[in-house]
Design goal:
By secondary structure, the chain is of the alpha/beta class. It is built from 14 helices and eleven strands. β1 (47-52), α2 and β2 form a beta-alpha-beta unit.
Length: 349
């Protein structure tokens, strides 16, 4: 009886150890079965690209960039990820364009003003007083003319993807508003790093001061410049209205902006992915334009509420400004006068 009792205890103990052993194995197998699908779902993207944007996080063009990145990631099921770098952390627009050309940056949104320094034919689309209004410009850019200008980038190291809105540009000054042609004479006006914009100010009798966007507030505050020119959201978002409270609505230029891709990066992608990129860029552009319209109205409202002086330039003065631009048209558009006529014809439809 005693031996049988001992045998029984050993038997029970061995069975218990065996049960624990196989239970542990079972738990391990079960855990592996649960983690395998999870590992498969967290595969790293095939491409991770950089996107340069010099505006603030809440600016329409920046939000358009984020929407573009979101759409691309969704359409490619995570194979392509685009990291948006806002607030100019990757450099000014000229530097960004140069980096795009050799593949240091993959995507960007830039103004046509600095871009035309690399592709001179784009000057046509930003000629002073060219468009009768917003609808006129979009009829041009979204049609055959806009496509032809996209094709001008061929061989530049850049690929044009879509057109972004940047509103209409107006003058603003620190001491007095510009109400007529004579008022601009002698004023030091900040311009983008663009030969066309520099010449425009000089033809009007002012002194053009090329300057990075980030330096304008300080220059206005210290009197280094007397004024600048930009759209409502830019004027409001970086608080230029605090130091230059006289805003003159003359609508001298509508300078569209372009979503760009490095040709070097473009060449890495399949035809299918290239098509996805173009479709997502177009969708993000439509989204950005809606945001721009809303933002421009809100910015104007804030500026007026802050007590700034807003002057609507009379139509007869705008005509005088337009007539003063004739030397510029002759200088930059001599080989494109047929295109100018086509653009003007779009405004008459």
């Amino acid at each position: 009886m005693k031996r049988n009792h001992i045998f029984s205890l050993k038997y029970v103990r061995n069975r218990m150890l065996a049960g624990i052993f196989f239970c542990a194995i079972g738990i391990g197998i079960s855990a592996c079965e649960r983690t395998e699908p999870k590992e498969a779902r967290t595969t790293a993207p095939e491409y991770v690209f950089t996107y340069a944007e010099n505006q603030a996080e809440d600016y329409p063009t920046t939000l358009g960039a984020y929407r573009f990145a979101e759409l691309v990631k969704e359409r490619t099921e995570g194979r392509i990820e685009i990291l948006v770098n806002a607030k100019g952390v990757l450099g000014d627009e000229r530097t960004i364009i140069e980096q795009l050309q050799f593949g240091g940056i993959d995507f960007a949104r830039v103004s046509l003003s600095p871009l035309s320094e690399f592709v001179s034919g784009l000057n046509v689309l930003q000629m002073p007083y060219l468009y009768t209004g917003s609808d006129h410009m979009w009829n041009v850019l979204d049609g055959d003319i806009g496509e032809e200008f996209m094709e001008l980038l061929a061989g530049s190291g850049l690929v044009g993807l879509s057109w972004y809105d940047a509103g209409v540009r107006n003058f603003y000054c620190t001491k007095t508003p510009i109400q007529k042609l004579e008022d601009i004479r002698g004023l030091r006006i900040r311009v983008q790093e663009s030969e066309l914009m520099r010449v425009m100010i000089e033809v009007l009798g002012g002194e053009a001061v090329p300057m990075a966007y980030e330096e304008v507030y300080s220059a206005l505050e210290t009197g280094t410049i007397d004024g600048a020119e930009n759209n409502w959201p830019s004027y409001e978002s970086v608080r230029h209205y605090e130091v230059a409270p006289y805003y003159s609505v003359d609508e001298h230029t509508r300078v569209p902006e372009m979503q760009l891709m490095s040709e070097y990066t473009w060449g890495k992608l399949s035809l299918e992915d290239q098509e996805i990129i173009r479709e997502c860029a177009h969708a993000s552009a439509l989204y950005e334009r809606e945001l721009w319209t809303q933002r421009a109205k809100a910015s104007e409202k804030r500026v007026r509420a802050a007590g700034c002086t807003v002057v609507e330039m009379p139509i007869e003065e705008r005509i005088r400004f337009r007539e003063a631009m004739m030397p510029i048209y002759q200088k930059y558009c001599a080989d494109y006068m047929d295109v100018i006529e086509r653009i003007e014809a779009e405004g008459e439809k």
